[in-house]
Amino acid sequence: MDSAAITLSIRRIDGAVDEVRDRSSALLDLRSAAPWRTFRWHLGQRHYAGTYWSATTKSHVLYESRLELARLLFADFDPSVHGIVAQPFLLTAVVDGRVRKHVPDYFLDTERGPVVVDVKPRRRLADPEVASTFTWTRQVLTELQWHYEVWSEPPAVELENIRFLAGFRRERLFAPDLLDELRGIDLEGVPIGTTAVRLPERAEPCVRAAVHHLLWRRELATDLTDRLRPSSVLRRTA
Predict the structure, then answer these.
(1) Which of 10, 19, 68, 191 is spaced 20 to 30 A from 227 at the CA atom?
(2) Residues 43-67, mean pLDDT to the nearest whole number
(3) What is the pLDDT of residues 194-208, one digit of tens each?
(4) How remote is the C-alpha of 160 from its chain's centroid?
(5) Rounded distance, CA 235 to CA 229, Å?
(6) Is residue 102 within 8 Å of residue 139, measured between CB atoms?
(7) Are strands 81-86 and 17-20 parallel, antiparallel or unpaired?
(8) How many CB atoms are closer than 10 A to CB 107?
(9) CA 8, CA 11: separation in Å to the nearest integer?
(10) Residue 102 burial by Cβ neighbours in a 10 Å radius (0-12, 13-18, 19+)
(11) Are 150 and 67 in contact (CB under 8 A)?
């Protein structure tokens, strides 16, 4: 593969397009990139598209399917992810003498480095065209020394738990003094349903909601492979 022929076309908010070939400068440019494609909504469309407000970016991120929304939830829940960009660039490369083009679904700025994500239902992965696209995309991104991930359906229970906790992701909705009180008491091994007993002067619904917020922030943890319920046992993450 000719690494000199690898180009990332990045769209700006004003619609202008930059063509970038340097890996380090591309990383900086991608943090402020606009989605490459324009998302459209129309009656009877096959894809479920929309916007998700990300606690990570403090802004809305676009998605084109429920599966992409699921990937957004997992990225937003991951404390190692510091940036999320939808439809981040048009990737152009010469592969086996052919010019190939592809727009990945997401770019994640993470503690382990740049991660480019394509989201596809598991049943579609065996499609020859899909498999070919993902193969050469992985080759190109390996050349750039970026991580590449093909993401399919996650475990259903874990997804539902994270989707539920995402409802508590907006920090501004929670009283800082209540959060500090919860941080200051020992909740190791305490079931979620009994946390309010530790703060008898606080309203139980407020305490329960604040606990869910701390779970979202990963300051508390519980087994998310099992369905969240009042008996779910808390543990400290640090």
Answers:
(1) 68
(2) 88
(3) 999 999 999 999 999
(4) 15
(5) 15
(6) no
(7) unpaired
(8) 25
(9) 10
(10) middle
(11) no
The secondary structure of 162-202 as a DSSP string is: HHHHHTT--GGGS-HHHHHHHHHS--TT-BGGGGGGG-TTS
Pairing between strand 90-95 and 98-102?
antiparallel
β-bridge partners, 163: none
Residue 29 has, within 13 A of its CA and on its CB side, a CA count of 19
- Across the range 127-134, mean pLDDT stands at 95
Q: Residues for the chain: how many in total?
A: 238
Paired strand residues for 51: 62
Q: What is the gyration radius of the CA atoms in the chain, in angstroms?
A: 21
pTM of the full predicted structure?
0.91
Q: Give, in order, the Cα–Cα distances in Å from 70 to each of 64, 96, 166.
A: 11, 34, 11
Cα–Cα distance measured from residue 124 to residue 118, given in angstroms and rounded to the nearest whole number: 12
Which run of H or of E encompasses 134?
helix 128-143
Distance spanning both ends of the chain, measured CA to CA: 45
Which tokens is 152 given?
């399919």
